[in-house]
Amino acid sequence: MDANQQFDRIDEKSEILINQVGHLTEGLVDLKLTVERQAETVVCLLSEGLADIRTTIERQVVVAERQAETMDRQATAVDRLVTIVNNLLQQRTD
After folding, report:
1. Of all helices (H) and strands (E), which one includes residue 33?
2. Can you give the pTM of this predicted structure?
3. CA 56-59-63 angle, 5° bins
4. Dihedral angle at the C-alpha atoms of 11, 13, 14, 19, nearest 10 degrees?
5. Fewer CB atoms inside 10 A, N or C side of the chain?
6. Alpha-carbon distance values, 70 to 65, 73, 77 (Å)
């Protein structure tokens, strides 16, 4: 094999290598874009999820406040019943 043939072969291999590096670079760029899109999607989903969680918590706070008010009214009613029962017992012993 003479020098020209060796240089031609080196040129061919160099072109093949350059081609493969180009394809690899394109693949990496595509992968990067895909990962960026997926990250944006995840951020959007998390934002929506957090908004839903916040709404749920706000609703639960309202329910808890109503339950606390109901418990206060029930405690007052129980106190009245205890007073009535005590008065009735007092009247029987008198």
Report:
1. helix 3-93
2. 0.56
3. 135
4. 130
5. C
6. 9, 5, 10
